[in-house]
Design goal:
alpha/beta; 2 domains; globular; 5-stranded parallel beta sheet; Cobalt-precorrin-4 Transmethylase, domain 1; Siro_Cobalamin_biosynth; 8 helices
Length: 266
């Protein structure tokens, strides 16, 4: 059980968002500014983000470290009575496809205080950059975050792409362009070949790539633009939202009452 001690070190897991430093939350920015040490994955974090704290913090690139080596550095730093605020910067949001679970387990066992600060995940940033939404009344009220099966482990039963596609909800598929042909084949089992897709890579960076296409063309389009990994594929009819004039929210409908407003004439 963790017992907070005065003057003890604290570790922050900070979601870096999709890459643009301006998409950090204010809380994330403030924590990074006051951090004494920042761990980050050099293969995933935009170098411009390091400019926020490189003059005040010790930077430790984790891209070539294994978990035991990261623990060794934690333990060494926790003996330091000067460096009390340590941040671990993760791309996107720490709650999805990150590696903080084993780090949290370790910190819990050691009784070390920690906090998680959320970030903007790529699917949200991609949808915003594309001027689209992921849900739409009467079209899709569900968003599925998922990935194809890769080297990091098998999918739990019922959570493979083909099974999830049965719902015809909006799907945001991460980390799967290495197997895009298989992914699209599974999607086509349940989605129309003319279902809209968004291929989004390097969202919010200068190299941002946003391509709208139909599901039947997704493999060819990804190949033409050399999209191989670290991109997100969004699939679903909600992407047509701005062209669907009848699918309106009830929130501002003049004929709909709610707790703060009566319908017109009501």
């Amino acid at each position: 059980m963790f017992v907070k001690k005065d003057g003890a070190a604290k570790i922050y897991f900070v979601g870096a968002g999709p890459g643009d430093p301006e998409l950090l939350t204010v809380k994330a920015y403030n924590v990074l500014k006051k951090s004494d040490v920042v761990f980050y994955a050099g293969s995933l974090i935009n170098p411009k983000m390091l400019d926020i704290f490189k003059n005040v913090a010790m930077l430790i690139d984790m891209k070539s470290l294994n978990f035991d080596e990261i623990k060794e550095r934690f333990e060494s730093l926790l003996k330091d009575e000067v460096r009390r605020i340590i941040s671990v910067l993760h791309a996107g949001d720490s709650s999805i496809y990150s590696s903080i679970n084993e780090q949290m387990t370790y910190l819990e066992e050691m009784g070390i205080d920690y906090e998680i600060i959320p970030g903007v995940t790529a699917a949200f940033a991609a949808s915003a950059a594309n001027r689209s939404t992921l849900t739409l009344p009467d079209v899709s009220q569900t968003v599925i975050f998922c990935r194809g099966e890769g080297r990091t482990g098998k999918m739990p039963k019922g959570q493979d792409i083909k099974s999830l596609a049965k719902h015809n909800a909006t799907m945001a598929i991460y980390l799967s362009f290495g197997i895009i042909e298989s992914v699209v084949g599974d999607l086509l089992e349940h989605y129309s070949k003319d279902t809209p897709c968004l291929i989004a890579k390097d969202v919010s960076l200068e190299s941002e790539l946003l391509i709208n296409c139909l599901l039947k063309d997704a493999v060819k389009t990804a190949e033409e633009h050399s999209v191989k990994n670290m991109a997100v594929l969004i699939v679903g009819d909600a992407l047509r939202g701005k062209y669907y004039k009848k699918n309106r929210s009830k929130l501002y409908d003049k004929n709909f009452s709610h707790s703060f407003r009566l319908k017109e004439g009501g």
